[in-house]
Amino acid sequence: MSADPLRGPLSVLLCSPSGCAAVRIEPALGRSPRKFLVFTAVAGALFSAGAVQAQNIDISGHLRSAWVGKQAGQLGPLAQANALVPGMVATEPSAATLQAEWRAAAKVGQVALNATATLQGQRPEGGPGHTTGWVNEAVASGSFDTVHRATAGGAQRSGQGAQPQDLQQAAQLTQQPGQSQATGLSSWQWSVGKKVVSWDVGYAFRPNDVVQQEVRRGLAPVTLTGRPLLMLEQFDADTAWSLVWVNPGRSKALTGIGQSGGEPALAARVYRRAGDADWHGFARWGRRTGGSVGAAVSWVASDALELHASARHFAHVDALAVADTASAAPPGTALRTSNPWQTALNGAGQQVLVGGTWTNESQLSLLAEAWYDGAALSKTQWKQWAARNQGLPAWRTLGAPAGAVAGNLAWQGSAFSAATTGSLHRQNLYARLSWTHEAWQPALDVLYHPADGGRMVTASLVWQGDRVKLEGGVRVNGGPASAVVRQLPVQKQAYVMGTWAF
After folding, report:
1. Angle at alpha carbon of residue 151, lines to 146 and 155, rounded to 5°
2. What domains are defined for the chain?
């Protein structure tokens, strides 16, 4: 679970009821303000240099302020570690954030430029504040064929590539009298830079999101940060092709489980519309994890009902696994001198999702999904994990130092991030009930784990005005005390957020 559910929301001064504190400029979340400022200067120079030729320059953005409150759990290995040695594991504090996001779009000749950058200030409760900045997207794009340059802008929407509405626009433009159908390389569009490319049809889980690899279901909405890539796209009225080289030039070595999405890889997607159904095919080859293939479909069964499914088979997957070490102690209970959870390359597996959405005329909507994630820990692995949690405290009765026992318990928390997909269990059930009424949208969703009866329940309320958006929500973990979600370090979360667009 991320230490910052917003994953980022500028501030020179942040205040609390007890006083105010100046925010210190320092790196945070792996993003350097110096790099951010350098990029901003370079991007500004590029946009300024092209100002004479630029067409339709658009600058927009938003200011967003938020408060996220968190309540630590009393169960699980991290709580046990802190009980033995107070402060052994730093708990995630509540925090106030202020975020400024800028978006710029321009066209220089036949090349479209798009950039999004974020500056954030955050002050955790009881701790010093800090600011950081990062670039969400910075991409140049265009078409190889002047006949189709008018259609290029439709496919440059951040994050999706060519979509059904883009195909309709392309078909209309390519069927204008006097225009010819481009063929070969001239019919392709290109994109270079840092861009969000999100694929697949699921809501809570996406097996075939093989480029962006977004972990879904964050507590509060965020603006995604893209990946460095080179991309080619071609589409007509019914078909779209996408070819992506993501993270070019990066090392294939895995330095940490959180860096899994930085693997250099080639990915491809083909989209085909057939009546009321949208079909997708996917392929990926990573320098470290090897190949994977997948398929997905979304079918509009009626005005009220949509059904979707997605499946993927992978040769290998990045994960955390317990390293085997020789020990005279009973299996699984030995004290270690280093974290037993190490990065590993697991073998072949599958990911499958099925779901659907029903919406009535009053805009009451029910979404239901079930998925299997072969990249997550198995039920047997979680049982072994729980047995180790129970066995480690016994070392105190044998005279082992409290720090050694507490340290081993703290390392058990690594299991919560063992799967790069964000899934705790392989079997998952999810349901979301929402209602859109004028400017209001209340929603309630539940994630349920059949393996141990654990559940996450989230309630939220959004009010959307012309330029102002207000929202808030609460997330609570429940189920038996032995359920994995009940062992997480944060058991209750709540947030309030206000966004002003400019």
Report:
1. 125
2. 13-171+183-501 (2.40.160.10)
